[in-house]
Fold:
Amino acid sequence: MASDRRDRDEELREQVQRQAKRMKQAEHDRRTLLAQTIYIGTLGLVFVLPLVAGAYLGRWIDEMSEGYSTRWTLSLIFLGVVVGGVNVYLLIRD
Structure:
């Protein structure tokens, strides 16, 4: 009876030690707030830059053509959204 109790106590002690070790490792591996902010900022930047570049380039091409048109602007904004989405996907995948 005392032996069973000792075995259970030892097993419980080992479980607690394993859990404490896992918790310490998780705390060590957790990213800091600054690192997370930089990562989110980078994601936003790689999405927005192609979008803005497409808008400016499309606007410039539309101004060069005769008459009022937004065809190039809208097309290149859409292309910027697609390119930005692909950039974000590739960055998250890595």
